[in-house]
Amino acid sequence: METDNPRHALSEEDVEKLLAEVHKDARPFVTLAVDTGMRRGELYDLQWEDVDLAQQTILVRDRKRNAYTLLSMTERVRVLLEEMDRQQKKERLKSLFVLPRNADGKPINRRTTITKAAARAGLPHVSPHTLRHTFATLTLDAGAELYDVQAALGHKTSVMTQRYDHGRSEQAKRVTEALERSREQA
User: Fold this and answer.
1) Which residue among the candidates 7, 27, 39, 61 is catalytic per the annotation?
2) Known catalytic residue: 68?
3) How far apart are CA 10 and CA 168, in angstroms?
4) What is the pLDDT of residue 171?
5) For the chain, does the N or the C end have fewer beta carbons within 10 angstroms?
6) Predicted pLDDT of residue 1
């Protein structure tokens, strides 16, 4: 983990740069990671039976704890999954898993692809876990409640979720504006 770098999350602009540079085969992984906050293993294990396009939800199973989390799809994820579903049906290759796998049935590791795409986009080192941090930071910056983000990430405590909240310039600006407003009122 990059403990000396305070920037463990991407901005929306950075996400768009990354999506523009990443190979088309890795775009679903990046999109799902950024818009759902799912762990790498959860993304690799995601099965079509856990995707409800009609209800626009994704059931994330934690097989270790015999628990689950129900996530709501962003518009970007909905469009992506509908297209993937159509394409697989068209090619009659409906897979058990949402993300493609190697011929031997193992998940395709996207770490190198993502790291290289980030370098081409002029971004600092980006890993699959950076995308999870990005989800948490962007949702908290957008005003989501800490408890809701905690639930979406599948964290047991809010302390862990707070570790995923990386301050952004917008957040710092809101804090300063609040301080200025309080001084004006005094």
Assistant:
1) 39
2) no
3) 9
4) 60
5) C
6) 34
Element (H, E) at 58: strand 57-62
d(CA 57, CA 121): 31
- In the residue annotation, 90 being an active-site residue is answered as no
- Distance (Å, whole) CA 183 – CA 179: 6
The two tokens of residue 53 are: 């396009």
3-state helix, strand and coil shares in percent for the chain, rounded to the nearest 5: 55, 10, 35
pLDDT means per 10 residues, the chain with 186 residues, are 55 96 95 96 94 97 81 97 91 81 89 95 92 92 90 88 70 70 81
pTM of the model: 0.83
CA distance 29 to 89: 20
Question: Does 132 participate in catalysis according to the annotation?
Answer: yes
- Phi, psi angles (nearest 5°) of residue 118: -65, -40
Handedness of CA 22, 139, 77, 156 (dihedral sign): positive
Whether 39 is catalytic: yes
Identify the active-site residue in 40, 132, 133, 166.
132
Q: Which of 76, 111, 116, 129 is catalytic?
A: 129
Beta-carbon count within 10 A of 182 CB: 9
Catalytic annotation present for 164 = yes
